[in-house]
Amino acid sequence: MPGIVYLVGAGPGDPELLTVKAQRLISQCDALVYDSLVPNEVLQLVPNSCECIFVGKCPNEPSNSQLKINKTLLELVKSYKLIVRLKGGDPFMFGRGGEEAAFLHNHGVSVEVVPGVTSGIAASAYMGIPLTHRSAASSVTFVTGHEGIDKKEPTVNWKALAQSSDSLVIYMGVQNLRYIVQKLITNGLPESTPSAVIQQATVKGQRYIIST
After folding, report:
1. How far apart are CA 177 and CA 169, in angstroms?
2. Which of 56, 115, 168, 207 is the most exposed place for a label (fewest CB within 10 A)?
């Protein structure tokens, strides 16, 4: 197939955290497939001649299925040379970028991944919270707080996490916050453990609570 798909990370929301390579590809692409987490300022970089396809991915709102997104990318490769699949954060960090890359690879499509600043790192950094520190934290674990609804049994081992990692970064955890806290405390994490809950990290409307 003539085209190539770039899986590009748009970063956590602040448009100034977009990488130089991502900016170049977005400004040159022939087709763009993007989700709801991509800031409008980044979309303004797209050429007027570019075909733009919005695929949703807003919580609790209708959006395209992952299979439909995969097939859309496959169809675009037949007509365009440079396709950007633009995702919030980093494509491979809870962004289903791995699924899209595997699908395209299995269909003979050239794929290149352009990393982005993931929200788990950006959110804590904007709050001045180091995830690692020589005197306090030598390990950090990234975990989803919102597992897929198609899973019959949860696969996150909260018991192990409560006992094994100095820092825990929980993505998409607000909706299940009470459940997560209960699981961690029940499995040995002290109630006095410092913690922060951050929403809309790095953008207007950001809010947070720092507590135990």
Report:
1. 13
2. 207
Helix orientation angle between 66-77 and 97-106, rounded to the nearest 10 degrees: 50
Q: Interior CA angle at 193 toward 189 and 194, to 5°?
A: 150
Range in 3-7, 61-65, 168-172, 197-201 the model is least confident about: 61-65
Listed in sequence order, the residues at least 6 apart from 29 whose beta carbon sits closer than 8 Å to its beta carbon are: 6, 46, 47, 50, 82, 83, 84
The span from the CA of 77 to the CA of 181, in Å, is: 45
Helix (H) or strand (E) holding 83: strand 82-87
Q: SS3 of 38, please?
A: coil
User: How far apart are alpha carbons 112 and 191 in whole angstroms?
Assistant: 43
Residues taking part in catalysis = 35, 57, 172
Model's pTM, two decimal places? Answer: 0.90
